[in-house]
Amino acid sequence: MPEGPEIHRAANTLKRALEGQDIVHVECPYTTIRGQEHRFLGKEVRSVEARSKAMLLHIGDDVLYSHNQLYGRWTVRKVASKERKTNRSLRIKLQTETHVACLWSATDIEILDPWEVEQHPYIARLGPDVASENVAFDAVLNQIQNKKFGGRQLCHLLLDQSFLAGVGNYLRSEILFRAGLQPTRRLKSLTDEEQTQLAESAISTTKRAYALKGVTVPKDLYELLREQGMSRYQARHYVFTRDGLNCHECEGIISHSRLSGRRLDFCKGCQR
Ligand SMILES: [Zn+2]
Predict the structure, then answer these.
(1) Which of 140, 167, 123, 222 is nearest to 8 (CA)?
(2) What per-residue confidence (pLDDT) applies to 3?
(3) What topology does CATH give the domain 4-124?
(4) Residue 238 CA to ligand 1 centre (angstroms)
(5) What is the DSSP string of 18-37?
(6) Per CATH, the architecture of 137-266 is what?
């Protein structure tokens, strides 16, 4: 399942292709938007933004909201190139003079008025989006200091999109490693210094994952490990999917556990 950095990368691709362009052809075959082509045809795509796992396309006076769930996917191609063969079902096709953008297989698609966006049940409950380039350090630190979350363990809290949006499974393990915090710690047990470390790690780890297409170790280290023959799978993260291997920081062995069926990896030596 894509996490914040992947959704924001997809938003950026859509943005580059569509923003400022007029829609010259539309198809809306999906039930919740069927027959609504006229809302988009001839209108300008004013902006594209990702909010956690939702995509918002502001077109004319409307907002196209979609949440990809597990299988949804946006693709973008030049008008002159052919659509790749796919088994996915088309949900919406938006064409400009130069590009074709298609949403496939998503099931949560709506057309909203601009004023409805912030009140949408999914959007309204999101915490600060750490995958957004505009995320403010203070907004993240405020969440970490919010007593409402104090009693909860970091490992559960980091997957709660109302705490910090944009964090998924691999980021959870990587953020905790870089903050030097044990996954079972409760938020209220963090010292001031640890609160700052967690806020910094949440932002910088996610930023790096965005810039390096899912890699959370520094680029130099990643390239070195790859040259030494390590697979992408084992080289791209500090701890996630590296259980049984040596920690890059302390040489200890990376530990593994599962929480609600989802992988959580950490280093006992580095995380206190
Ligand atoms: Zn370590």
Answers:
(1) 167
(2) 85
(3) N-terminal domain of MutM-like DNA repair proteins (3.20.190)
(4) 9
(5) HTTPBP-EEE--SGGGTT-G
(6) Orthogonal Bundle (1.10)
Residue ranges of domains in the chain: 4-124, 137-266
Residue 107 and residue 38 in contact, taking contact as beta carbons nearer than 8 Å: no
So what's the pLDDT on residue 70? 76
The helices-and-strands tally (H runs, E runs) of the chain is: 8, 10
Instruction: State the distance from the centre of ligand 1 to the C-alpha of 156, rounded, in angstroms.
Output: 21
Output the DSSP codes for 163-207. TSBT--HHHHHHHHHHHT--TT-BGGG--HHHHHHHHHHHHHHHH
Ligand 1 center–CA 154 separation, angstroms: 18
Would the CATH topology of 4-124 be identical to that of 137-266? Answer: no
CA pair distance 47, 17, nearest whole angstrom: 11
Which residues form the catalytic set? 2-3, 53, 262
CA dist 225 to 27, 42, 87, 93, 171, Å? 46, 50, 36, 41, 20
Rounded CA separation 29/91 (Å): 6
For residues 231 and 249, the answer to whether their CB atoms sit within 8 Å is: no
Instruction: Please give the mean pLDDT across all residues of the chain.
Output: 95
